[in-house]
């Protein structure tokens, strides 16, 4: 089966070609270079297999080094050139493509292969030397001069390989005394041979040694293992630290008796320092130098995983009004402010078990651990607030820094890190909404309400698509004759888990997310359609005219450009006359309204749609403003009727209502009263001149058919 162009087999052959070209000039052989290349091809496959192994086994690579000696590649430069080729081309031609992490792993495995090849080469060359020495000894009587020359050449080749290798090599006896060290190893240790030769390896302990390092060493000198490989640190004579990839192999004599230790060392100090630097940059904030979110989560998870009796305390800080600094002074000034805040926070958390981190933007966290965090976290929050109290000077200006802090404290191992941080975040926003520049302690009930609020917010968009909303209608009753004149449409949410949710819980969420516009359009469409159904059913039986439906408009809907066109389209599609619709707008939404905001309402009023000013009396009640508003109905808030539930009624409330009714009628405005719950209230409101009313005295909000039944009963 032929390999595809530039496939793995082609790349392997390229590697073998480069290897043969480097090695052939220094190899004593009678075969041609192509034949020599074919002889190296199986060895190249062994190296590729070793590179592909997930668990490195040195035997295969050592066999390659032994095979080179068997192929008469024993000249001084043979091993050096082989190691250079493996280092430069093995990963390039024989390694699988992958991300940077996988390439780094291949480079590490390639270094191990070089060590193993060198070890196998050195062992085979030494064994070959011993074999040659034995042969020379047997022929000593016949060719003493030839034996001496061959021994000298063999020893010279070994010495050339030993001293010319790019990696550090040392030979020690079984007691650990260093007998030989090559030039590369001497350079690693500062360049002085006396610091190596004659020393015992047991002296080279380091505090960062893994516990199993010396156990492996003992097993090797006993002959229980042939080699081991570890990452080990050494102290240089000047006190600096040398980090190495260390491979130690056991050398046996011809009878298999352990005789020497062979150590191969690769200097990894620069690589380790680079990794430490990358780790620091990955876990610390570039602007402030504080630990970042990644490192903070590691510390928090460690604190939460502590044993029984351990506690933690966390302060979640957000600067109040930081966006104003960025917008007014620029981001450079904002960054300097953050650096100064970070320095002050770090000075607040210097006790053991305390840390400060920057999560991002102007959000910081402070963590404390220990048995008494309930007191310590409160003191830590106090120190932070005091540290922020002093103004910070930026670009010649003194900036007052305020912050809101959410505190979470409790026993470890009860909650996860994400849950703790979410609770702290919720609590921090509770402190911010309470005015800021303060700290609050986490409250599980408040957290639950916030989480429920968030869940409702995320569920709102799909709730409209799934048809989870429905409308109830509360009758509007004429106070003069008690007839039903219409109803106010009140939307409800039938949530799959929470049941029926009242509008005061989800309407603010819909306004915040912008969903109030499509939801309001749906309510208007359904209500208008229902009013048309009432009109068709009652017909001439309703002496006072068709039943009118009142629909609430939110401030967001008022500013929506499609308000007028949507209303016209909905009325025309349903076939309902505009005077059967009343749009209710809260007084607060129209306070200070300009002509652009009032223009859509004026157009609707000119069409015949009634506009009601809802919750009148709860805002500033700018009575002079009524003249310019396109309203035809005033709806008094239920606050005016609460004082009338007791007998006798508060005379002040009666005078206020009487005055409002008189003013409204003088402006040709009808008056509707909300919250009527007793017959006494209804009678008094009738005497005061109010036109219509709604409340539980007449009926609670209910299905549309009930309103139709009430209207027919009045007609009869």
UniProtKB/TrEMBL annotation:
Q: Where is the PAC domain?
A: 228-280
Q: Which residues form the PAS domain?
A: 154-224
Range of residues in the leader sequence:
none
Write down the InterPro entries for this protein, in alphabetical order: Biofilm_reg_signaling, EAL_dom, EAL_sf, GGDEF_dom, Nucleotide_cyclase, PAC, PAS, PAS-assoc_C
Entry's Gene Ontology BP terms: regulation of DNA-templated transcription
EAL domain sequence ranges: 453-715
**Annotated ranges, domain GGDEF:** 310-444
A Pfam family annotated for this UniProt entry: EAL
Please give the PANTHER family that the UniProt record associates with this protein.
Answer: BIOFILM ARCHITECTURE MAINTENANCE PROTEIN MBAA, DIGUANYLATE CYCLASE DGCP
Name the record gives this protein: EAL domain-containing protein
């Amino acid at each position: 089966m032929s390999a595809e162009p530039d496939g793995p087999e082609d790349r392997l052959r390229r590697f073998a070609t480069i290897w043969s070209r480097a090695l052939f000039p220094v190899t004593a052989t009678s075969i041609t270079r192509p034949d020599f290349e074919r002889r190296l091809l199986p060895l190249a496959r062994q190296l590729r297999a070793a590179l592909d192994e997930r668990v490195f086994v040195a035997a295969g690579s050592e066999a390659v080094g032994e095979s080179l000696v068997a192929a008469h590649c024993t000249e001084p430069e043979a091993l050096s050139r082989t190691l250079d080729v493996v280092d430069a081309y093995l990963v390039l031609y024989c390694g699988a493509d992958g991300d940077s992490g996988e390439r780094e792993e291949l480079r590490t495995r390639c270094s191990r292969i070089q060590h193993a090849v060198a070890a196998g080469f050195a062992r085979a060359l030494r064994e070959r030397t011993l074999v040659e020495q034995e042969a020379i000894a047997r022929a000593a009587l016949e060719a003493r001069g030839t034996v001496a020359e061959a021994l000298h050449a063999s020893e010279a080749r070994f010495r050339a390989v030993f001293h010319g290798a790019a990696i550090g090599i040392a030979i020690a006896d079984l007691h650990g005394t260093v007998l030989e060290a090559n030039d590369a190893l001497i350079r690693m240790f500062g360049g002085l041979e006396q610091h190596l030769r004659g020393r015992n390896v047991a002296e080279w302990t380091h505090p960062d040694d893994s516990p199993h390092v010396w156990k492996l060493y003992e097993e090797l000198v006993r002959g229980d293992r042939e080699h081991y490989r570890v990452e080990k640190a050494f102290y240089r004579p000047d006190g600096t630290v040398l980090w190495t990839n260390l491979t130690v192999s056991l050398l046996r004599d011809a009878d298999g008796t352990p005789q020497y230790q062979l150590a191969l060392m690769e200097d990894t100090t620069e690589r380790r320092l680079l990794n430490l630097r990358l780790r620091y940059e990955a876990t610390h904030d570039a602007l402030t130098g504080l630990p970042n979110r990644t490192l903070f989560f590691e510390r928090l998870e460690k604190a939460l995983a502590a044993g029984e009796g351990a506690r933690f305390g966390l302060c979640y800080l957000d600067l109040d009004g930081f966006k104003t600094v960025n917008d007014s002074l620029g981001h450079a000034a904002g960054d300097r402010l953050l650096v100064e805040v970070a320095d002050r926070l770090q000075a607040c958390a210097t006790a053991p078990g305390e840390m400060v981190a920057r999560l991002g933007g102007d959000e910081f966290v402070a963590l404390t651990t220990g048995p008494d965090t309930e007191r310590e976290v409160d003191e830590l929050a106090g120190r932070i607030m005091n540290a922020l109290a002093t103004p910070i000077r930026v670009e010649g200006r003194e900036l007052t820094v305020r912050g809101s802090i959410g505190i979470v404290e409790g026993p470890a191992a009860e909650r996860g890190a994400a849950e703790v941080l979410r609770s702290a975040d919720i609590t921090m926003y509770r402190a911010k909404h309470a005015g800021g520049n303060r700290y609050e302690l986490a409250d599980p009930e408040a957290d639950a309400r916030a989480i429920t609020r968030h869940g409702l917010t995320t569920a709102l968009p799909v709730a409209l698509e799934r048809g989870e909303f429905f409308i109830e209608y509360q009758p509007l009753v004429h106070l003069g004759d008690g007839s039903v004149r219409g109803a106010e449409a009140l939307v409800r949410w039938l949530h799959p888990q929470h049941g029926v949710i009242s509008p005061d819980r989800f309407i603010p969420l819909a306004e915040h997310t912008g969903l109030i516009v499509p939801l309001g359009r749906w309510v208007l469409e359904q209500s208008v359609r229902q009013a048309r159904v009432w009109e068709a059913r009652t017909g001439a039986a309703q002496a006072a005219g068709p039943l009118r439906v009142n629909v609430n408009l939110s401030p967001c809907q008022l500013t929506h450009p499609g308000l007028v066109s949507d209303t016209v389209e909905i009325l025309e599609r349903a076939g309902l006359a505009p005077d059967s619709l009343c749009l209710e707008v809260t007084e607060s939404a129209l306070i200070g309204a300009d002509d652009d905001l009032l223009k859509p309402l004026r157009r609707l009023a000119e069409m015949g749609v009634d506009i009601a000013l809802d919750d009148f009396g709860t805002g500033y009640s700018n009575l002079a403003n009524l003249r310019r508003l396109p309203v035809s109905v005033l709806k008094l808030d239920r606050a005016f009727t609460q004082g009338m539930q007791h007998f006798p009624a508060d005379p002040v409330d009666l005078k206020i209502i009487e005055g409002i009714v008189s003013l409204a009628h003088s402006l040709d405005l009808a008056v509707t009263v909300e919250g009527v719950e007793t017959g006494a209230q209804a009678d008094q409101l009738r005497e005061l001149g109010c036109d219509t009313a709604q409340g539980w005295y007449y009926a609670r909000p209910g299905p549309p058919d009930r309103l139709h039944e009430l209207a027919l009963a009045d007609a009869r």
